[in-house]
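Reagents: none. Just compute today. 1-phosphofructokinase.
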Amino acid sequence: MILTFTPNPSVDRTIGVPHVHRGRVHQGTSSRIDPGGKGVNVARALSLHDAKAVAVIPIGGAEGRVLAGLLEESGVEVVGVPIAQPIRGNVTVTEPDGTTTKFNEPGPVLGGDERAELLGGVTAALSRSPRWLVCCGSLPGGLDDGFYARVVDAGRRRGVPVAVDTSGAALLRAARAGADLLKPNAHELAEVHGRALTTLGDVVDAARALLETAEPPSGAPATAQPASVAPPRAVLVSLGSHGAVLVTAGRPAVRAVAEPVVPRSTVGAGDALLAGYLYTRSASSTTAADDAGGHAADDAGGHAADDAGSHDADDAGSHDVGGDHADGPNELDALVAGVAWGTAAVRLPGSRMPGPDDVAGTRVRVEIDPDLDRHIHE
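Predicted 3D structure written out:
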């Protein structure tokens, strides 16, 4: 099971139009409603691949009830924390060429009791020994920048690896708390360092700097997992059409990129990338987890590589994935799967997440020690 935590979820309405003209009335050509929020999207993607996903979310107002219902219909187990104010209702406008315009509401403001109950909901769910805890998205009003860091600490104390996908000071605080995986995009990584990142080398350097901000955990885990199960700390940076780069402590950077596709919507592509990566890491660690008394392979949805699309090994060159990449095949398979899932999401309308049929056939090229002078601007 993978546990996701989305403190600022939404109900997303996506409207398709021929073209956006500022100040005019537009006639929509399509419309759909989806559960929204980065962690919610991760859970939805996992569920489509028959992986057990549990979503911890605040539930407030009519929108909160709609969100919970949509998630349960999609096979995601919901751990709802009641709040007084309604959650967000966001609007996305898409054009035929893939241009996406988003309008996000600010979201609720949580009171002191609600903050404690939200953290308590995550902590209680950790007792179910998930393979990963995934903390995603912006923080609503009332939650300070250190909230994710406290969640990371709770996960580490219980021996559960934690992935964080957020931005700004919250990302930096989560890194300092020792999150096992950070998943910013290039813009968010540039923002946290306060400088432009124009080449792949800039991105890799910034990712390594983020890894180096980690602090030792504030106490030994209550139930530590075997070292063979715990993944190395890493930063997975999404780069849009340039794919993604995985930067792991003490190892060379690896980039993966899919063949070009015609985009329909970019909403949720980074979330699908993270879901595919974690799905594959969870599946490939099944043997070690079972030896430790963990969950069965069925919780991970079977053999993840089958859903990852095609991995063009020839394009990876003659680089050896052993040596410094002692865990290389695991990481490489996960990176390939993540890029395949993210690419599949771009081909879908609105914030729809990709299932196995959507991912199948996606070709992904892997570059070990990639060209760091490559410009990564769209």
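Confidence is low (pLDDT under 50) at residues 220-231, 287-307, 313-328.
Action item: order primers for follow-up constructs.
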